């Protein structure tokens, strides 16, 4: 069972989200909050697997709550609910340790599949958000792309060939078990590789590692792929 704390300041939105999540027998919404501070308290009280947080809430917003939850309750992953108009928040949420980003206006099935991926230890970026990030990464001018892409490549070059294989599958949002099945190795070995990848890339979580892979051109469509 995937235990969820849901936080959004709009009552109707929370009701809609609860209805979507409750339709999946593997998900249990164990608490609801109207702001980030209340969400942090609920996480401390109920130890959910995932805190599903809206970005913009009065008082303590989703970004502040993300940083607090990941620092104080590392056993709880954070998934951010966002919109196309809130791209600027994504970088801050990444630095705060969020494990996933889902569009509030997206397909409900995407929300559920994203939560399942994160619950299995994976990372999840809504495809639309991933494409938007790639576009933004590539839209800052040639000099900026080359500088950022070069720095990302230097970090990715620290990885072994097997670690690069694992990193590419991380960008697909696969869990350790799924990566192990794809590569024909045991999940324990994948866990070791993931820890090494995060350490060598100086990435806080799998989402940050995936963004670096895009920047370095390791994944098709990344802003540096044409420069390699």
Automatic annotation (TrEMBL):
Residues 152-217 form the HTH luxR-type domain. Keywords: DNA-binding, Phosphoprotein, Transcription, Transcription regulation. This is Response regulator. Residues 3-119 form the Response regulatory domain. Pfam families: GerE, Response_reg. The modification 4-aspartylphosphate is found at residue 54. Gene3D superfamilies: 3.40.50.2300. It comes from Streptomonospora algeriensis. It comes from the Bacteria.
